[in-house]
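# step 3/5: fold
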Amino acid sequence: MLTQINQGGSGFPADYGATERPPVMLNNPGTNDFPEDDLHEVRLSTAQQAVQSFHYGTRIKSLLVLLIPFLLTVLFAPRGNSSSSPAAAAAAAANGEGVNGTRKPKAHGFLPVEGTVGGALFWMALVLVIPINTLLIEYLEDLVVRHDSLSLGIAVNLIFEHAAELLFSFFAMSYSKQSLCWVKPLLQGSILLNMLGVLGVSILTAPLTDGTSVDLGISSWTAFSASGLVFATTVFVLPTVYGFTVAAPDAIDQVNRLHTPSKQVAEQQTRNMLFISRSLAVCVLVVYALYLWKVVRSNSNYYVASDNPNAPSSLTYALQYRERLHSTQEVDLGSRYSRRFAVTGAALCLLVLVGLCYVLVATLMAATKEVTTLPLPFTLVVLLPLLFEANGAAASVLMAQVGRPDIAASIAFSSIVHLYMFVLPVVVLVGWAVLQVPLELYFHPFLVCCCFIAALVVAQVMVASRVRWLEGGMLLALYGLIVCICLLGRWHLCTEEFS
């Protein structure tokens, strides 16, 4: 049974108004004074629970209608390369290459991955990620409410809120040498989106307290994150700094002065970089696991939102908050689904998400080269992170709109911490131990500079409890500049992509 925190049931003092500074601590609006039957006995049929799944975020979840043309395209679309002649395809296949002289892609008898059909599948799959992610987190958080489990809540935040990035990364690492280069720009793009885009929009949409500034009511967690963000960014920049300052000059010296074969030098440099990257990933993951173990042992309440890095950060939670805030009647926001329905729904959503991420990896090149003119850097650094992180980003902006920019900032910072401390290390270690793929933490120099500059700017902005509206605009303008540079598309993501 959930702990009763606030006798009032709403989480707000009676005289709370628009001009008053919001309280730093906020209880979950859906966990106060629930009868045990509401939490453990949902007496609704399966059809009624399915309809209830569309109560929050109806417009977003209505995008699921794209499943129909998506499945029809997969089942009935013609296979093969529709953009080239049969003679050119046969000649390229005989040479073990693609039509344009690139390495021959993997064969997919069940999936059309090339031409206009492949591009259409990419865009449908990309849009479908949003409602599937939203439903997945909603079902899992309903289980968290039902069991009042802090450890389950942490698992939802760490793994399933970033399931799209993890699945896309795993498939990209195992798909081809070219797609291996997509992983690091994607994760760096997610970090930049939260640091600049989400925080900037949240500040711009939050209500002003004195006409010029936004009162963050900053919590101790957010204040700690502002300084810890610079430290985490610096730690993950170190492999790139090592590559520029130590590895590259040493390689040039060995080739020119010692006349060592360039291939042997390259292999040695790769081994050194992999050792540094994997050691860093192990250290970071161990430290974060110890921290989470201490959090679980502390038995802190999962739904103390503004001062807990593992608090709910989903769109459904934000919509529940708004409904409770603006409703004149008591809103029942306890466990809304039976255990069997929530588990089955989450499993189905996860299965669909796995298929969508695989389709995205297989059809990305068709979408960027044959269907649209979007450059690959823009697709990886901006477009994919925007869709993968849409659930948390929308929740952050919505919380800012209803007058809680402190929770909005906490959601954005929590996502950054999870990407740095969990997603990046896990991707490196899974590539090493499971997929046997040499993924290292040597990032693109432009993206490294962007992350480091963004961390410095955000830390400077967030150290004060009051943030001027102009500073939110500056964060968003900086992110817009990065988007424009990615739209130019005249820079390589990594050297291996064109080797």
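# step 4/5: annotate
Residues 220-256 form the longest helix (37 residues).
# step 5/5: archive (pending)
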